[in-house]
Write a structure and sequence with these properties.
Layout (H helix, E strand, L loop, with lengths): L1 E6 L4 E6 L5 E7 L2 H11 L5 E6 L3 H15 L3 E3 L5 E2 L2 E2 L10 H14 L3 E6 L2 E7 L5 E8 L1 H11 L7 H7 L9 H28 L4 E5 L14 E2 L3 H9 L4
Protein name: Type III pantothenate kinase
InterPro entries: ATPase_NBD (IPR043129), Type_III_PanK (IPR004619)
Catalytic activity: (R)-pantothenate + ATP = (R)-4'-phosphopantothenate + ADP + H(+)
Protein backbone atom coordinates (compact mmCIF):
# COMPACT_ATOMS: atom_id res chain seq x y z
CA UNK A 1 0.00 0.00 0.00
CA UNK A 2 1.22 3.50 -0.87
CA UNK A 3 0.70 6.53 1.36
CA UNK A 4 0.19 9.80 -0.53
CA UNK A 5 0.39 13.16 1.24
CA UNK A 6 -0.46 16.72 0.26
CA UNK A 7 1.02 18.81 3.07
CA UNK A 8 -0.41 22.31 3.10
CA UNK A 9 0.25 25.14 5.52
CA UNK A 10 -2.82 24.37 7.64
CA UNK A 11 -3.81 20.78 6.87
CA UNK A 12 -2.47 17.49 5.58
CA UNK A 13 -4.60 15.72 3.01
CA UNK A 14 -3.80 12.01 2.85
CA UNK A 15 -4.88 8.85 1.14
CA UNK A 16 -3.68 5.27 0.84
CA UNK A 17 -3.75 3.58 -2.56
CA UNK A 18 -2.85 0.19 -3.93
CA UNK A 19 -0.10 -0.27 -6.50
CA UNK A 20 -2.86 -0.17 -9.13
CA UNK A 21 -4.07 3.21 -7.89
CA UNK A 22 -7.22 2.03 -6.13
CA UNK A 23 -7.99 4.29 -3.16
CA UNK A 24 -8.32 2.32 0.09
CA UNK A 25 -8.92 5.20 2.53
CA UNK A 26 -8.05 8.83 3.16
CA UNK A 27 -8.85 12.01 5.00
CA UNK A 28 -7.70 15.42 6.20
CA UNK A 29 -5.82 16.06 9.46
CA UNK A 30 -4.41 19.08 11.21
CA UNK A 31 -1.10 17.77 12.50
CA UNK A 32 1.60 15.12 12.12
CA UNK A 33 0.34 13.36 15.25
CA UNK A 34 -3.22 13.22 13.92
CA UNK A 35 -1.91 11.71 10.70
CA UNK A 36 0.04 8.99 12.49
CA UNK A 37 -2.97 8.16 14.66
CA UNK A 38 -5.32 8.00 11.66
CA UNK A 39 -2.96 5.70 9.78
CA UNK A 40 -2.55 3.41 12.78
CA UNK A 41 -6.32 3.13 13.11
CA UNK A 42 -7.17 2.59 9.45
CA UNK A 43 -4.20 1.02 7.66
CA UNK A 44 -2.83 -2.48 8.19
CA UNK A 45 0.52 -1.86 6.52
CA UNK A 46 2.40 0.59 4.31
CA UNK A 47 5.07 -0.15 1.71
CA UNK A 48 6.00 3.32 0.52
CA UNK A 49 5.16 7.00 0.69
CA UNK A 50 5.22 9.94 -1.70
CA UNK A 51 4.43 13.49 -0.74
CA UNK A 52 4.22 17.09 -1.82
CA UNK A 53 4.79 19.79 0.77
CA UNK A 54 4.58 23.58 0.85
CA UNK A 55 5.72 23.58 4.48
CA UNK A 56 9.16 24.60 5.68
CA UNK A 57 12.05 22.21 5.26
CA UNK A 58 12.14 21.63 9.02
CA UNK A 59 8.43 20.81 9.24
CA UNK A 60 8.59 18.48 6.27
CA UNK A 61 11.71 16.72 7.57
CA UNK A 62 10.02 16.21 10.94
CA UNK A 63 7.01 14.56 9.30
CA UNK A 64 9.19 12.30 7.16
CA UNK A 65 11.16 11.26 10.24
CA UNK A 66 7.96 10.43 12.14
CA UNK A 67 6.69 8.25 9.30
CA UNK A 68 10.03 6.50 9.00
CA UNK A 69 10.14 5.78 12.72
CA UNK A 70 6.51 4.66 13.04
CA UNK A 71 5.95 2.72 9.81
CA UNK A 72 9.50 1.96 8.60
CA UNK A 73 8.87 3.60 5.23
CA UNK A 74 10.87 6.05 3.17
CA UNK A 75 9.18 9.06 1.59
CA UNK A 76 9.69 10.09 -2.02
CA UNK A 77 9.20 13.86 -2.21
CA UNK A 78 8.08 15.92 -5.21
CA UNK A 79 10.51 18.67 -6.21
CA UNK A 80 10.25 21.75 -8.45
CA UNK A 81 10.85 21.11 -12.14
CA UNK A 82 11.08 23.16 -15.31
CA UNK A 83 9.33 20.38 -17.23
CA UNK A 84 7.42 17.24 -16.28
CA UNK A 85 5.38 14.74 -18.30
CA UNK A 86 5.18 17.04 -21.31
CA UNK A 87 4.24 20.16 -19.32
CA UNK A 88 6.61 23.14 -19.31
CA UNK A 89 6.55 25.36 -16.25
CA UNK A 90 5.52 28.90 -17.22
CA UNK A 91 7.08 30.78 -14.31
CA UNK A 92 10.20 32.82 -15.04
CA UNK A 93 11.73 31.07 -12.02
CA UNK A 94 10.13 27.65 -12.10
CA UNK A 95 11.06 26.82 -8.51
CA UNK A 96 8.81 29.63 -7.24
CA UNK A 97 5.61 28.08 -8.56
CA UNK A 98 3.82 26.40 -5.66
CA UNK A 99 4.37 22.66 -5.84
CA UNK A 100 0.71 21.86 -5.23
CA UNK A 101 -0.29 24.13 -8.14
CA UNK A 102 2.40 22.59 -10.34
CA UNK A 103 1.29 19.03 -9.66
CA UNK A 104 -2.37 19.92 -10.15
CA UNK A 105 -1.78 21.38 -13.59
CA UNK A 106 0.48 18.46 -14.57
CA UNK A 107 -2.28 16.09 -13.45
CA UNK A 108 -4.91 18.04 -15.36
CA UNK A 109 -2.91 18.03 -18.59
CA UNK A 110 -2.32 14.29 -18.20
CA UNK A 111 -6.09 13.72 -17.91
CA UNK A 112 -7.16 16.23 -20.57
CA UNK A 113 -4.51 15.43 -23.18
CA UNK A 114 -5.01 18.98 -24.38
CA UNK A 115 -5.57 22.58 -23.35
CA UNK A 116 -6.98 23.02 -19.86
CA UNK A 117 -7.91 25.56 -17.23
CA UNK A 118 -7.26 24.46 -13.65
CA UNK A 119 -9.20 26.20 -10.88
CA UNK A 120 -8.21 25.37 -7.31
CA UNK A 121 -10.76 26.79 -4.87
CA UNK A 122 -9.45 26.60 -1.33
CA UNK A 123 -8.22 29.06 1.30
CA UNK A 124 -6.64 30.85 -1.64
CA UNK A 125 -8.01 30.57 -5.18
CA UNK A 126 -5.66 29.85 -8.06
CA UNK A 127 -6.11 29.47 -11.78
CA UNK A 128 -3.64 28.05 -14.28
CA UNK A 129 -3.71 27.83 -18.05
CA UNK A 130 -2.00 25.04 -20.00
CA UNK A 131 -2.14 25.02 -23.80
CA UNK A 132 -2.50 22.03 -26.06
CA UNK A 133 1.28 21.70 -26.42
CA UNK A 134 1.78 21.49 -22.65
CA UNK A 135 3.01 25.07 -22.18
CA UNK A 136 1.90 26.54 -18.86
CA UNK A 137 0.86 30.10 -19.67
CA UNK A 138 0.74 31.27 -16.06
CA UNK A 139 -2.19 31.97 -13.81
CA UNK A 140 -3.73 34.05 -11.06
CA UNK A 141 -3.97 33.94 -7.26
CA UNK A 142 -6.61 35.67 -5.15
CA UNK A 143 -8.20 35.22 -1.71
CA UNK A 144 -10.66 32.37 -1.38
CA UNK A 145 -13.92 32.44 0.55
CA UNK A 146 -12.29 31.52 3.90
CA UNK A 147 -9.85 34.43 3.63
CA UNK A 148 -12.51 36.91 2.50
CA UNK A 149 -14.84 35.82 5.30
CA UNK A 150 -12.13 36.00 7.94
CA UNK A 151 -11.02 39.45 6.83
CA UNK A 152 -14.55 40.74 7.20
CA UNK A 153 -14.96 39.08 10.58
CA UNK A 154 -11.61 40.41 11.80
CA UNK A 155 -11.93 44.00 10.60
CA UNK A 156 -15.67 44.61 11.00
CA UNK A 157 -16.90 44.52 14.60
CA UNK A 158 -20.53 43.73 13.83
CA UNK A 159 -19.85 40.72 11.62
CA UNK A 160 -20.06 37.80 14.03
CA UNK A 161 -21.61 34.41 13.22
CA UNK A 162 -20.56 30.77 13.36
CA UNK A 163 -19.89 28.22 10.63
CA UNK A 164 -23.33 26.58 10.88
CA UNK A 165 -24.98 29.92 10.20
CA UNK A 166 -22.60 30.43 7.27
CA UNK A 167 -23.56 27.07 5.79
CA UNK A 168 -27.28 27.81 6.03
CA UNK A 169 -26.76 31.20 4.38
CA UNK A 170 -25.60 29.53 1.16
CA UNK A 171 -28.85 27.70 0.51
CA UNK A 172 -29.74 30.63 -1.76
CA UNK A 173 -28.01 33.48 -3.58
CA UNK A 174 -30.84 35.96 -3.13
CA UNK A 175 -29.85 39.30 -1.58
CA UNK A 176 -29.03 38.66 2.07
CA UNK A 177 -31.49 39.64 4.77
CA UNK A 178 -29.01 39.12 7.58
CA UNK A 179 -25.32 39.92 7.94
CA UNK A 180 -24.36 36.26 7.60
CA UNK A 181 -26.38 35.88 4.40
CA UNK A 182 -24.99 39.10 2.96
CA UNK A 183 -21.37 38.13 3.65
CA UNK A 184 -21.57 34.49 2.61
CA UNK A 185 -23.54 35.14 -0.55
CA UNK A 186 -21.39 38.14 -1.44
CA UNK A 187 -18.20 36.09 -1.12
CA UNK A 188 -19.73 33.27 -3.15
CA UNK A 189 -20.70 35.68 -5.94
CA UNK A 190 -17.19 37.18 -5.97
CA UNK A 191 -15.80 33.66 -6.36
CA UNK A 192 -18.17 32.91 -9.21
CA UNK A 193 -17.25 36.21 -10.88
CA UNK A 194 -13.56 35.30 -10.75
CA UNK A 195 -14.27 31.92 -12.33
CA UNK A 196 -16.27 33.50 -15.14
CA UNK A 197 -13.41 35.87 -15.99
CA UNK A 198 -11.04 32.88 -16.19
CA UNK A 199 -13.41 31.10 -18.56
CA UNK A 200 -13.56 34.20 -20.76
CA UNK A 201 -9.76 34.36 -20.92
CA UNK A 202 -9.49 30.66 -21.75
CA UNK A 203 -12.00 31.12 -24.58
CA UNK A 204 -9.89 33.97 -25.94
CA UNK A 205 -6.94 31.56 -26.06
CA UNK A 206 -8.61 28.38 -27.31
CA UNK A 207 -12.25 29.00 -28.25
CA UNK A 208 -14.21 26.07 -26.86
CA UNK A 209 -11.34 23.60 -27.23
CA UNK A 210 -10.28 23.28 -23.62
CA UNK A 211 -11.26 21.40 -20.49
CA UNK A 212 -11.95 22.94 -17.10
CA UNK A 213 -10.89 21.23 -13.88
CA UNK A 214 -12.25 22.22 -10.48
CA UNK A 215 -10.47 21.19 -7.32
CA UNK A 216 -10.35 22.41 -3.72
CA UNK A 217 -12.92 22.50 -0.95
CA UNK A 218 -15.07 25.28 -2.42
CA UNK A 219 -15.40 23.74 -5.88
CA UNK A 220 -19.14 23.05 -5.24
CA UNK A 221 -19.75 26.81 -4.93
CA UNK A 222 -18.94 27.36 -8.60
CA UNK A 223 -19.86 24.03 -10.19
CA UNK A 224 -23.19 25.49 -11.27
CA UNK A 225 -21.56 28.22 -13.37
CA UNK A 226 -19.23 25.73 -15.08
CA UNK A 227 -21.53 22.74 -15.71
CA UNK A 228 -19.10 21.09 -18.12
CA UNK A 229 -16.19 21.24 -15.69
CA UNK A 230 -14.58 18.11 -14.32
CA UNK A 231 -14.56 18.13 -10.52
CA UNK A 232 -11.29 16.48 -9.50
CA UNK A 233 -10.68 16.67 -5.74
CA UNK A 234 -7.55 14.48 -5.99
CA UNK A 235 -5.89 16.37 -8.84
CA UNK A 236 -2.72 17.05 -6.84
CA UNK A 237 -2.38 13.34 -6.14
CA UNK A 238 -2.70 12.61 -9.87
CA UNK A 239 0.28 14.88 -10.49
CA UNK A 240 2.13 13.50 -7.48
CA UNK A 241 1.99 9.96 -8.88
CA UNK A 242 3.50 11.28 -12.12
CA UNK A 243 6.25 13.21 -10.31
CA UNK A 244 7.10 10.36 -7.91
CA UNK A 245 6.53 7.01 -9.63
CA UNK A 246 6.91 3.92 -7.47
CA UNK A 247 7.74 0.70 -9.28
Amino acid sequence: MILELDCGNSFIKWRVVTRDGVVACGGVVGSDLELVEALRAQVAGLDACRLVSVRTEEETASLIAALRQTFSIECLRARPAAELAGVRNGYEQHELLGLDRWLALVGAFHLARGACLVLDLGTAVTSDFVDTGGQHRGGFICPGVPLMRNQLRTHTRRIRYDDKVAERALHSLDPGRSTAEAVERGCSLMLQGFVLTQLDLARQYWGDSFQVFLTGGDAPLVAGVVPTARVAPDLVFTGLAIACPLT
